Amino acid sequence: MTKSTKFISLLLVLIALAVSWFVVRERLDLGNKSEDEKLTPAIVVERKPILYRSEIYGFSFSYPEGYELTVESPEKISVGRKNIRGIETLVEISLVKSGDDTGIQSFEEFVLDGSRELCAINHALLSLSCTRIDDIVRIAPFMSDAGTNGQVFYLKAEVKENTTGKTLGKRRGPFYTFNTSPSTPNEMSFVAIYNPVVLDAEDANEDLIESIAKSFIYRP
To answer: Among residues 170, 101, 107, which one has the least CA distance to residue 135?
Structure first.
């Protein structure tokens, strides 16, 4: 091997080593960062909850950033998430008022009857109802983070296939309810935060429903 050939071979080896070092350096991010920069953790941007307040009825709640709020009326609100078909409703928030057909009953009975109505649905293919007095699966006191007292429970529902007449029992919920009667003179009323009727309890986003219920504040 001539001297010139040895020199070229040595030069190629040195070039290969230099390229390898730069590749390793970039992968390990050892570039132009100081020691302080290397030790600084990445900044995590926290998503702040978005507040909704009803000026008419005096209640408010928060929902996570990234979700969509839909206000159909002061008594009918929903929180959902965008998908290719539009907005998928994940939580319903309804204010239910007593009417002339309510009759004489306690507030507790009114809440259960009103919740059963929220639970009902009637389509051409199927109907769903929560009508019996023994439909309560579980009922327990609940307090929001702001100290607003309410309750949480599930209902039993009967799903009927209208084409075949076949029936199936299902659990519905959760339902978080809060008394708002002071905001509706001469009427009883409550706010219900619950799983949409179109979603089975097994498909409910219970974490999201509970987080909205925990944020609930009522100041008439």
So the answer is: 170
Instruction: Please give the structure tokens belonging to residue 46.
Output: 């926290």
Instruction: Give the integer Cα–Cα distance in Å for 80 and 69.
Output: 7
Q: At 141, list the tokens.
A: 């006191």
Residue 13 gets the label, from left (phi > 0), alpha (psi -120 to 50) or beta, of alpha
* Whole-model pTM over 0.90: no
Pairing of strands 217-218, 76-83: unpaired
CA angle 51, 200, 153 (to 5 degrees): 65
pLDDT at 15: 55
Residue 157 contacts residue 175 (beta carbons within 8 Å): no
Helix (H, G, I), strand (E, B) or coil at 54: coil
* Residue 181 DSSP label: G
pLDDT of residue 220: 87
78-127 residue pLDDT tens: 999 988 888 889 999 999 999 776 666 789 999 999 999 998 877 666 67
- Using DSSP's 3-state secondary structure scheme, residue 172 falls into strand
Whether 209 contacts 176, CB under 8 Å: yes
Check pLDDT > 50 for residue 30: no
Measuring CA to CA, how many Å separate 28 from each of 20, 21, 38, 75, 167?
12, 11, 11, 57, 62
